[in-house]
Design goal:
Largest sheet: 3 strands, antiparallel
Order of helices and strands: EEEEEEE
Number of strands: 7
Distance between the termini: 23 Å
Strand order of the largest sheet: 1-4-7
Shape: elongated
Structural class: mainly beta
Number of domains: 1
Strand content: over 45%
Helix content: under 10%
Length: 81
């Protein structure tokens, strides 16, 4: 969701599983007619830094990489099944 703005409403129509009052519906591959309505809280925020360390024993080889994944924070408003 590269172009989502804060406060916007987003719908996801490819739902894999729905649990409604203990009645579980599993899609094959998706549940027909189900969708999830969400609201964008913050758009494109960087997550915590994850450090990746590579080492080869007895060879003196060490490499440290860092990575921060971008994500969009959502609040689920409604699940329509």
């Amino acid at each position: 969701m590269q172009n989502a703005e804060a406060g916007a409403t987003v719908e996801f129509e490819k739902v894999l599983l729905v649990d409604k009052d203990g009645n579980i519906t599993v899609g094959a591959p998706t549940v027909e007619g189900a969708k999830v309505v969400c609201e964008v809280v913050t758009a494109l925020v960087k997550g915590d830094k994850v450090l990746v360390f590579h080492k080869k024993r007895r060879k003196g080889y060490r490499k440290l990489n860092g990575h921060r994944q971008q994500f969009t924070e959502l609040t689920i408003k409604e699940v329509v099944a």
